[in-house]
Design goal:
The protein has about 110 residues and is an all-alpha fold. It has one domain. Helix content is about 60%, strand content about 0%. It has 5 helices and no strands. It is elongated, with a radius of gyration of 19 Å.
């Protein structure tokens, strides 16, 4: 982890490597999580459909274009920095590979 500079926000100082977000746990059939699996699967399908929409991709591209065009004029203003945080969150969402994780969970649930 790099040393935080004065320009780094508190939420942006920690970078968790990709393999750290994957973990497997064996659970008994009587566990509460297994009983709620059907509702979790419905939510997974909802999230998967949202992530597959072209609207998120097009909005991300539009956000990138806006930030690129106004980087010199608005670089120090609050709205610009807020939009940069949104762009950073979208980048992290893409790096998390939620689509593959949800698809794996859906495959496990259908067995």
């Amino acid at each position: 982890m790099a040393a935080p500079t004065s320009g780094d926000s508190v939420w942006n100082r920690l970078d968790v490597p990709w393999p750290a977000c994957s973990y497997t746990v064996a659970v008994s059939a009587q566990h509460f999580a297994v009983k709620c699996l059907s509702s979790a699967m419905k939510k997974c399908h909802t999230v998967e459909n949202i992530l597959k929409t072209k609207a998120i991709v097009s909005e991300g591209k539009a956000l990138h274009a806006i930030l690129y065009n106004f980087r010199y004029q608005m670089g120090c203003q609050r709205p610009y920095r807020s939009l940069k945080q949104v762009q950073q969150c979208l980048k992290r969402l893409n790096l998390m590979n939620l689509k593959q994780s949800i698809e794996k969970l859906a495959e496990l649930g259908s067995m």
